[in-house]
Amino acid sequence: MESKVVVIFSIWAVLFGQLATIVRGANILYISSVASPSHFLWSQRLFERLAEVGHNVTVVNLYKEGVVRGVHLLKLDDVIADLDSKEDDEEDYVEFGQLNPFEMHVSFAELELQVCELAIRSTTFRRLFDNSRNSQIDLVIHDHLAGPCLLALMPVFNYPPLILASAYNRISTTSLPMGTLIFPGFIPNQVYDIDEPMSFFNRCFNVVLSCWEILFKEFVYYPKLDKLVKTAFNQSDRVSDLEKRALLAILNSGTLLEHPEPTTKNVIQVGGLHIKPTKPLPTDLIKIIDSASEGFVLLSLGTNARSDSLDSTILIEIISAMNALSNITFLWKLDSENCLPVKLPHNVFTSAWFPQNDLLAHPKIRLFIIHGGLLSTQEAVWHGVPIVGLPIYADQFGNVNQLIRKGVGRRLSIVNLKSHQFIEVLDDVIHSESYKENAMQLSRLLRDRKVTSLDDAVWSIEWVLRNANTSHVWNQSLVNLGFLQKHSYDVVAAFVCILMLIASILLLV
After folding, report:
1. Is 129 helix (H, G, I), strand (E, B) or coil?
2. What pLDDT, in 10s, does the model give residues 454-492?
3. Measured between alpha carbons, how far is 262 from 133 in angstroms, rounded to an integer?
4. Beta strand 409-411 pairing with 387-389
5. Residue 497's domain spans which residues?
6. Domain assignment of residue 402, yes or no
7. Sign of the torsion angle spanned by Cα atoms 322, 323, 324, 328
8. Which residues are CB-contacts of 444 (< 8 A; sequence separation ≥ 6)?
9. Where do transmembrane segments lie in this chain (predicted)?
10. How many separate domains does the chain show?
11. Cα separation of 445 and 350, whole Å?
12. What is the CATH number of the domain that holds 387?
């Protein structure tokens, strides 16, 4: 009997060992080409975890080179430098935020086309494209927010399984590659800054904008992208079609900060994946915070629209408000004080980098002045910190609006910012207990998960590795279904025509 048990356990050990070799140790190519440092940081959290659990991960990206924590980083040389050189001055994100929604979509598409053109010309990408045909890649993970340009590598590796993964939270971004539905009747377009609930005319505009966005991508943006790649590599595959091979999408959503957007089962929501366990603060920051008798306020406008690129009139209003609130200590993420038009007051401390996640976890923080970037917004909610939003462009308006509706802060216009308004709003959020109470309640809800977002993402990726070959059970019919059929607009149109025909006959009788 004992020998039978040993044999059974030996068989199970062999089987589980074989399964482990299938799941662990896979060769994964991660493509992260969004021209935004924060998006790369989100991806970094995911691909480093994949390496930790035993996978061989190679990352094609715009920011880092070398081997870091077992991950092979291939930087597309000079893409960011070339992008910067094409700008006359620091890009004015405040001015960019004043574009109408149609112009903003076009601007993002133009940026993605620039990145594509620079990336496929880079030495790193050329070398990877030309010399990797005998390499074994088990899975490709692609940040689809950058567009499908670099999926030109898919045929090189004999079309491995594809997963989309993005630091963005809008499910509608998977509409074209995966066929997910859009709901413009009650969900504002990601670049449409509008109060909710939307009025009838707002909904009309939103429907037009959302449909125009899909048509613009399908018939203007994608053809330009396909032409760029075909000219460079003479491929028969269109990269816009290659993106539709995706089996799964992993999105930075599901954090109670989004609209209740219906989705399909192959969209995995892992909002807050990037949030790490907190670490002790550096000694210099501990000294500053210990001396802050009434707590401190953190001010950060993110990695793109930096504080030092703001107009001097805006900076003067911000500094004036900080000076008036001299009993509060301010930590301001600022690349350089040389850009400031006036001297900083004694209660303001600046640095090009702060351990933001660790500061938000500190019990003495009173408030987070935020631009509304999704990652920072999620960190604020995770730690239960009230906010004052100064949204600048794109989805930042919607992110801040969601927090305002949930009662965890207030919003100001950075374009028309006045110090007296800033002082009143800061004082209100700091001293009204309701903002903190609502923030803590939202934090408890966000933390109440059966598994962590990171573990959920890794499990989903490994599920694809285990089951990608069973293609006959994958239902990708939504991808091939036309826009009109998917939303039953053709059926509605048919009924309208029938009713009009009946009405015409009745009128003639």
Report:
1. helix
2. 999 999 999 999 998 766 566 566 787 877 888 888 999
3. 40
4. parallel
5. 476-509
6. yes
7. positive
8. 384
9. 491-508
10. 3
11. 33
12. 3.40.50.2000
